[in-house]
Amino acid sequence: MDAPEPRPGRTVPLEVWVPAVYAVVSALWIAFSDDLLQALAPDPGSARRWAVLKAWAFVAATALLFHHGLRYALAARRADAARLARVERRARTLVDSSPDGILILEGLEVTFANAAAARLLGAATAEALVGLPVLQLLDPTEHALVTERAALIRDGQVFPPAPGRLMRRLDGGGVRVSVAVSRMEEGPGAPLQVSLRDASEAWRLQQEVGRITLALRMLGAVNEALVRVGSEGELMAEVCRLAVEVGRYRLAWIGFAAQEGGQAIQVAAVHGAELGAVEALGLRWGGGEEPAGPAVAALRSGRPVVVPDLAVHPSTAPRRESHAAMGLRSAMALPIAAGGSRQGVLALYGNAPDAFDAAVTPLLGQLADDLAFGLVALATRAALAEERGFLQAILESASVLVAVADGEGRLVRVNPELERLTGWSRGELLGQKAGLRLMPPDLAPRFEAEHQALRSGPFPAVYTSELLTRAGERRPVEWTVTPLRSASGQPSHLLGIGRDVTDQRRAEERLRESSEQLRALAGRLRTVREDEQTRVARDLHDELGQLLTGLKMDLRWMENRLEELPPGERVSALLDRTVAASELADQTVASVQRIAAELRPGALDRLGLVPALRQEARAFERRTGIACRLRVDDAAPESPPEVATALYRICQEALTNVSRHAGAGQVEVALVLGRGQLVLTVTDDGRGLEAVAAGPEALGLLGMTERASQLGGTVTFGRGPDGGTVVTARLPVAGGARA
Predict the structure, then answer these.
(1) Which residues contact 156 (CB under 8 A, 6 or more apart)?
(2) 3-class DSSP state for residue 465?
(3) Burial of 724 per CB tally in 10 Å (0-12, 13-18, 19+)
(4) How many CB atoms lie within 10 A of CB 86?
């Protein structure tokens, strides 16, 4: 029978209880077997037989005891072996199904590998890894470190897991792994267990987070630089420096398309290399079949260009030696719109492949945008500073008065001309209310009210006020006020540009006095001329007319006497000449009458204004063939001689203009009374007043105006409702009898 299998819960080891049982049985046998033998065999013969039997019995008991002990020991060993096999199967299953790769090293040679390690290291089976030196599976850069640490671990030192170790796959690739190493037993030369976990994604994320962190730091530093720097060159140099020192890029440079002389990029700032080395990276295009570098491609396309690996990219073939010599492995070029037609590029180079992944390129794009904004802002700031300098120079040198007041009317800026005119210094004017410092006391309240009203418009506002100088002199100034608006569009200040019109006022006064004198002189000359014309007309009519009448009578007498003489050749000739002289005398009398009437119509002095106008209308129609109709208001009073003369001359000049320029078919002359004024209107249906308004004939219009103005009246010129010209003269007249 097989011995029962020991229960798993037994605590006394076999090597303890078997000797113990043997010792107890042997002691009992020795102690009691002799006494039992004497009792059973009192005689010596039987005693010997019983002694032999006792010995064999002891041997049998001992053999039986050892038989049971051995059966039990073998059963226990078989049970332990079965348990060990189960544990080994479970352990192997666990190792084979583990997602982590497991290697066992003796020395630096692989003696065991699981399936996960085979998959991780690119082996067809786990057995393909057994027997390989572990250094063959490591990147050469890791050999020295791994050898050193393996020895230290066997000596009992403990190291934390090493993340991101680069191992070489059997298929030629590489993989980043997290490595944990421990010794499997005590003592020198103990085997090592190596746990491998794929850390490629973690490594990628770690590198990506690192690049993003560096890019964010660089972006923040650049934004701080945008606030600090004061020029474009300083900003570009600082951006390149920050890209290398903070962003950890190998090289950074900024360039702009050449404005003249060809297709090339001119480098404006660089950090990480010499300028000559940068110019060897391909900054020209259009000169041959050589492919353009990333900077040129970005500048020409207007889009960012990324080269993940400069060592293998087709476009970098002509410059790979330069890249390798400078330690450049990847590149990114970003276009910069620096305002107007100025186009630039920011070029960044990394010292490892894939330094510009999808996570970091948007941040670098933001960096390029910030740089472009900064360049535009600095250019704008420089332009504003230049413009401010121009405006300040204009303000300082302007010959007009310039003052800027805030919403409360306090002066915040004045120019030297205002200081010179008023006698107040800039320090005495700034911060003071303009109404209290510059206005006379009697005008200050009104100025404050006008200042508040000006803030609501309309603009520009033009008005004239008086300035009070330090010496107490009041000087008239013509101001043009416009608002200066804040960012919200609301007026924040008022800009006043003033012109001292003191001299102009004096000149205007002198001109007015001169004009009045000239007007009086012109009126006097017209009166003298009218008197002279009246005298000449009277002399022509009275004296020359009488002489011509006498001459005509004598010629008529001679004609009658010659007709009474006997006919003859001489008499006939003398008679013909006498008749011709008589006819010439008639023509001379008619001419004298016409000239006298033109110089001074007798009807005006003898009969009054209305008959003279009627006579003039008939003469105009007869002379020009233009129909002329006179319309007179029955209520029109008799006018004073000077008024009658003025109205008659105005009518005469208006009819002359119609005959010369209007091309009219008919004319109407009207004389009416309205509101204490005699109103004379001459209306034609011609082409209008524009024909003579700008020509020499305009002097006639001015003469009409002056005639009326001298008597306190007016003359206006306009267009009729159906075209043509309307001349209207209004002269004040007192009521009286009919004209």
Answers:
(1) 183
(2) strand
(3) buried
(4) 10
Crossing angle for the helix pair 14-40 and 44-97, to the nearest 10 degrees: 170
Q: Is 190 helix (H, G, I), strand (E, B) or coil?
A: coil
pLDDT at 731: 87
pTM of the model: 0.49
Report DSSP state, residue 107. T
User: What is the Cα–Cα distance from 35 to 40, expressed in whole angstroms?
Assistant: 9
Residue 585 and residue 543: Cα distance in Å, rounded?
A: 15
Residue reference for tokens 């006298």: 596
Instruction: Write down the residue that tokens 């066997």 correspond to.
Output: 154
425 vs 418: CA distance, rounded Å: 9
How high is the pLDDT of residue 735? 41
CA distance 707 to 727: 14
Cis peptide before 460 (omega within 30 of 0): yes
Cβ(285)–Cβ(300) under 8 Å? yes
DSSP state, residue 174: E
CA dihedral 228, 234, 240, 243 (to 10 degrees): -10
Averages of pLDDT over each 10 residues, the chain, 739 residues: 48 64 73 67 69 75 76 80 80 74 86 87 88 86 81 78 81 85 78 85 81 88 87 90 92 82 78 80 60 81 89 82 87 83 85 87 89 86 82 79 83 85 85 76 73 67 81 85 79 82 80 69 60 59 62 70 68 70 71 61 67 83 86 73 80 83 84 83 80 51 77 85 84 55
How would you list the strands of the sheet with 305-307, edge to edge?
Answer: 265-271, 251-257, 343-350, 330-337, 305-307
171: helix, coil or strand? coil
Largest CA distance in the chain: 255
Give the residue ranges of DSSP H helices in 4-43: 14-40
The conformation of residue 198, written as its DSSP 8-state character, comes to: E
Residues 118 and 108: their CA atoms lie apart, in Å, by 17
Write the CB contacts of 459 (distance below 8 Å, at least 6 apart in sequence): 481, 482, 483
> Do 218 and 184 contact (CB within 8 A), yes or no?
no
The β-bridge relationship of strands 627-632 and 666-674 is: parallel
For residue 493, the SS3 value is: strand
SS3 content of the chain, % helix, strand, coil (to 5): 55, 20, 25
Q: Which two tokens stand for residue 426?
A: 């800039």
Cis peptide upstream of residue 314 (ω within 30 degrees of 0): no
H or E, element range at 460: none
Tokens representing 110 are 């692989």
Looking at residue 381, what is its pLDDT?
Answer: 84
Euclidean distance between CA atoms 23 and 335, whole angstroms: 100
Three-class secondary structure of residue 167 per DSSP: strand
> Could you give the CA distance from residue 465 to residue 442 in angstroms, rounded to a whole number?
12
Instruction: State how far Cα 312 lies from the chain centre.
Output: 41
* Amino acid (one-letter) located at 552: K
Tell me the one-letter amino acid at 504. Answer: Q
> Which residues, listed in sequence order, are joined to residue 719 by a DSSP beta bridge?
725
